[in-house]
Predict the structure.
Amino acid sequence: MTSLLQTLSCADGYDPDSLSVERARALILSLLQPVTGREQLFVRQALDRVLAADVISPIDVPAHDNSAMDGWALRFDDLNPAGETRLRNIGTAFAGRAFEGKVDAETTVRIMTGAVLPEGVDCVVVQEVTRTEGDTVIIPAGQRREQNIRRSGEDLSAGKPAVPAGKKLRPAEMGIIASLGVAEVSVRRRVRVALFSTGDELCSLGTPLAPGAVYDSNRYTLWGMLTRLGCEVIDMGVVKDNPAAIEAAFREAATSADAIITSGGVSVGEADFIKQLMTQLGEVAFWKIAMKPGRPMAFGRIEPDGQNHSGAWLFGLPGNPVAVMVTFYQFVRPAILKLAGVDPLPDFPTFPARCTEAIKKGKGRTEFQRGTLSCDNGAWCVRPTGAQGSGVLRSMSEADCFIVLPPEQGNVASDEIVQVQLMTGLI
Ligand code: AMP
Ligand code: MG
């Protein structure tokens, strides 16, 4: 394998001291490949899993020509184009109980939604527009051939892919698969992610807070986000800023995980040995991404036993809790989806909204402010969620979107149009 860092350094616009968000994301995605393991699961167990192979339809759906409405099944050519037509009622077709006879000239069959079309029928007239007089059914003018008819194979045809590989299965796909009579599907195995926090100041839950200490919150937000994305999470706890402990954690993580996520320890002025260790145990690039929050980040591979061994991708996220979440949304989420085999990768839903407050912003970096959306007379408005410090996790909790301010953007005036990324439901 060509050295990872070599590949990176040859990439267009590669400047580890000032990478744009888009560039960093593209570099990461260009290196990752989906995990190859597969599992065979019953449809219900496969919710939110990623399909490993196309589901080929074994049948036509619908399997028979049938009626889309309750009404009268008839032959279009029997109808008088200029006025009413009188037809004789000769029976009823129910869903699951067909009318066995044939619809001949000047006859009609009462038909229910989903009932198989009797022979000869090419038009269904909805009940509401008709009248009956004894056995006679009176059909008004203005009908069309083929109206209210569902032809067999209209939804899906036998032998064709009904759901493509790479699809993350949602309720709609589960329904489609069930509609084919298929009981099991092949999905990719879950992405395994090992997770630990670094920092001598970190204190675990359930222990009293020592002077100068902070509770380790990052492991909880990360665990939540990874779990929501369908990962198998290996939680390795807090690791002290101690070379031996960190080395042991990396070695252990790299034997079983596809990716390792750490928080803290990658910023300027951090205990340098963490960065040295990462480099020593694999190939890791330290990036200063032109974004706020979330500037420092490490990305690379940890391969403690050399190449072609077990090994894992490393995402060394910053320590500040908001920076952790922002970098996760911008880089880790697409990376996990790529590893999981999701194809095509979804875009972040982004759209313009009117910003209800002025925002101070320096040029040169992309800022991800947290905001809440509302609709005002049919137009989207966004309001920043109070204090935007990279340690203020409340700003994430209150937010349903990021206000994305590009590098060239300066201060935002009240009522200016800004781009927002909707995060609700993404993780
Ligand atoms: P660092 O990137 O290690 O310099 O950390 C930056 C800031 O984030 C410091 O204030 C840390 O105390 C804080 N921090 C680091 N890790 C965590 C964590 N796991 N939970 C909460 N805060 C953290
Ligand atoms: Mg630290």
Q: What stands out?
A: The longest helix spans residues 321-340. The chain has eight helices and 26 strands. Helices lie at 4-10, 21-31, 171-179, 218-228, 243-256, 272-280, 321-340, 394-398. Residues 198-199, 264-265, 270, 319 surround magnesium ion (ligand 2) (CB under 6 Å).
